[in-house]
Amino acid sequence: MPPKDIIIDTDPGQDDAAAILLALGSPDEINLLGITAVAGNVPLALTQKNARIVCELAGKTNVPVFAGCDAPLVRKLVTAEHVHGKTGLDGPALPDPDMSLQDQHGVDFIIETLRARPVETVTLCPLGPLTNIATALQRAPDIAERIQEIVLMGGAYFEVGNITPAAEFNIYVDPEAADIVFKSGVKITVLPLDVTHKVLVTPERINALRAQATPVCDAMADMVDFFERFDTGKYGSDGAPLHDPCVTAYLIKPELFSGRFINVEIETLSELTLGMTVADWWGVTDRAPNAKFMGDVDVQGFFNLLTERLARL
Questions:
Q1: pLDDT for the residue 232
Q2: Ordered structural domains, the chain, with CATH
Q3: Catalytic annotation, pick one of 82, 84, 105, 243
């Protein structure tokens, strides 16, 4: 099979960096058409810069990077420097990028790319708040039927929330955008906290990265070592969840994951449960299924894939 054409929409973030690097290390399976940055883990000025830093780290300066939306659709931006550090990529000492940011707005790039390519041949891969994707769908409703699939990291069911008791960060930051995306009629696959909280970066797995003795693997080990300290303190687990590369791993080896096709709706009104992904896992309503919601993952298979592909760069 030819590689899958994708656009990564992201707010790097160390785990976003891992997702991008996994894509760049897998050219037989993934053709990365471009990266669109969105405000999320840190403000847009840093996320677009970080996306270029990651591309340069991998030696892939031909990947175009675009700046997208700098704030949620209707809400004030909430960021996560308490997890990712003030730059979003705290951990390794990485130089500022030399590669240029594209002049075109990220949303316009998404729309233009989907309109220019054959129907259902481009997959959108959001790793952060869904602001860019929702804005594109609002601005150009015709693109919905052109998208092959949206594969996103966000939401939770059994694991409930990581930024509030009820909500996962990416959905919470822009719940109105998430609501638009989940109601779009586009084929959606969700990698929620229920999966990502099983993918823990333990000291042994960090050492396995360092053992590859490459600049990319060393930098990734430094990144996960940094944010691992926050998550182990918060959750009392053996390591930090590596959220976003689950999206890329799913594109490469979907057999690593299992889930159910269910109805997922987004809470946008309640102050108590704002941003909650109300996932009808048990089928207790008559609401039509609209998303493949993953619930389990082959953890060691995931880390074997991640380590091997990053070592290629």
A1: 63
A2: 4-310 (3.90.245.10)
A3: 243
